[in-house]
Each structure stands twice: as structure tokens, then as C-alpha cells.
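for the writeup, i need someone to sanity check this before i put it in the appendix. the sequnce is what the collaborator sent (i think, or maybe the updated version? ugh). structure was predicted straight from it, no edits. if anything looks off just tell me and ill rerun, i have time this weekend
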Amino acid sequence: MKRALLCLLLLAAGPVPDQGHGPLRSGHADASAEVQAMQDDDTANPAMLWVQQGEALWDQPAGSSGQGCAGCHGGVASMRGVAMRYPAYDPALGRPVLLEQRVNQSRTTHQGAPPFDADDLLAMTALIGLQSRGMPLSVDTAGPAARFAAEGEALFRTRMGQLNLACAQCHDTLAGQRLGGALIPQGHPNGYPLYRLEWQSMGSLYRRLRNCMVGVRAEPFGADSAERVALEFYLAARANGLPVETPGVRP
């Protein structure tokens, strides 16, 4: 029955309509008890190694300013409530900005330092995200931000790649069912950046999106593309109300 449904979805044309996915459900709730326990125990959560790396970077002097992040912000606890609002619309830029982009913008503008490399950026965003752990995602899509959220939703519902699949087909229509033995989650980003057992490493939401796009044989969005930002903006807003779990653990 499930294979027949998937075949029908593959043969269908046009964007996928909004069929909803029921009450919001974090990927943590769909994980095994062992994975849940790993995330919930900071001494067992492997992502905390990146958080420790971020703590060192927070205080580390960098660039022409000769200061670390603490030079302006004080202790990292000052970041409480930040991650729950990102991606966030920036009126000066006229577009949404990802947390990763904001961190590197601050680093280059205020510290006079080069952008963080990928691993250090994961560490810093994990550290900042941790400060909002347990707080509900509250991404604002009102006013001029609305069109970017709409663009992100359109991408979420657009079929792509040689398999002609849209994100919504799995994470809305089929959420809670199984495919290849694995449970299909609603696909919320409230745990990112997170440690994925499949990767045996920390990863960003962009890494997960890129893997999904490669899986349907589509050309992934560029790391700095407007499409990537719009899609992540929509996904965060779609998860509004779920608690920040950063750094999460997933299978």
C-alpha cells in the first residue's frame, strides 16, 4: 500500500498542496529511547564537544579588534533567546539572515576577523543555540518578511530532481509513516546544529537539506543562495512553538 502511494506521488505533477502534518512533533520524539537519552544527558551527548569548542572561541581574541565575542557581549548567557528567533528578518538588508550568517557578519564587521570555518561555525552556533534550549521557536514572518516565508514554503512544496519529489510529500503527507524501515519525521529544525549518528559528526540544517536534495537527485541550493535562506526561514517558522533542542542528537 505504501509503495503504491509513493508511486502515485512520483507520477503526480505540479506543486504539492498544503495537507498539514497534524500537531507539531519534534524529531526527538520519533527517535529511539537510546537516542533520546543521549540527547538529554549532556555528559553523553557527543555534540557537547562542539559546544566546548564554541566556549573557547567565545573568549578567544581575533582579528584587528583583538577581542573575542565576550568583548562586546560579555558572558555567553547574554545570547539567551537569540537562537529561538533565527533566521530573522534584517530591515537594513531587506532579507532574512541565518544565525550562521549573523555570527560571521559580526566576526568580520566588529572583530575584523575572517569568517569562521565550517567546524568552528558549527561550534559557535551550537553554543549560542544551547543558551535558548527549552525556549519555543518564535520566528517572525510578519510584514516585509512574509514574502520570504512564502518563497520558502513554495520551495518546500516544489517537486525537484529526477525523482520529482517535494519536501512536503515526505514531511507533511507521509510524516509518521515508514519508508525503508525508517520513520518519516515532520522535519523540524529545532535541534540544529545537531549530532547525527549516521554522520558520526555534527552537522548544520544546510547539510541535511543538501543530503535530501542529493537523495532526490536534484542540484543542491548554494550555501549562500537566497533559496537556502528562504527555505530555512520557512522551516523555522513552520516549527514555531517547538522548544529549541540545540544541540540535538538524531539517528
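The radius of gyration is 18 Å. The beta strands are 88-90, 95-97, 178-179, 182-183, 194-196, 201-203, 248-250.
thx in advance!!
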